[in-house]
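Worked example

This section walks through a single chain of length 195. The input is the sequence exactly as stored; nothing has been trimmed or padded.
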Amino acid sequence: MSKPATILLSLICLIAFGAGGYFIFNGGSFGGLGAIVATSLGGSDANVPDALAVSTPVTPEATAGMKSYQNAAFHFGLLFPGNLVATEYKEKGDALTASFQDPSTNEGFEIFVTPYSGTQIDQARFKLDEPSGTYLEPQNVVIDGTQATLFTGKNAIMGDTREVWFIKNGYLYEVATYKELDTWLGQVMQTFKFI
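Given that input, the structure is written out below as tokens.
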């Protein structure tokens, strides 16, 4: 195994163990922190491509116990618990994965954002990002005035996930965490804003 592949595999394993606890968070909807790379959702370690770039954005304290995250290029921001660390992964196709993870427990969530010209998520796109094809308990929700779908998914790395997908201004947003963290993620997503 090549050195980059070994490093990526180690990173995925570390994130998967940490994400398991944090992604049980309590109020979200997307499944996939364990791999941090959005394309790994539902995929195996061998299918996870290397991120094009990794960075740690500035996340100032917004209120007691909460930090602020904003990404002007992808037009969104949110508040997240202060014990989490935000990391951005530049992906192929001008996409981004923003991971929010507690370094001591690896609990957290991730947001995958990619340019998307459709007004609805077609089967081909769903199968690409959710290879298991699992789409259980769908619910219509609203994220900052935009219609979204919350559902239970599944992937090889994380097991059962809670995910919320929505389209806004030419971008597809996929938010994921462990199913057990559904309520927690929901509380975080109440602070999600388009900018």
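What to look for: Residues 1 and 7 are 10 Å apart (CA to CA).
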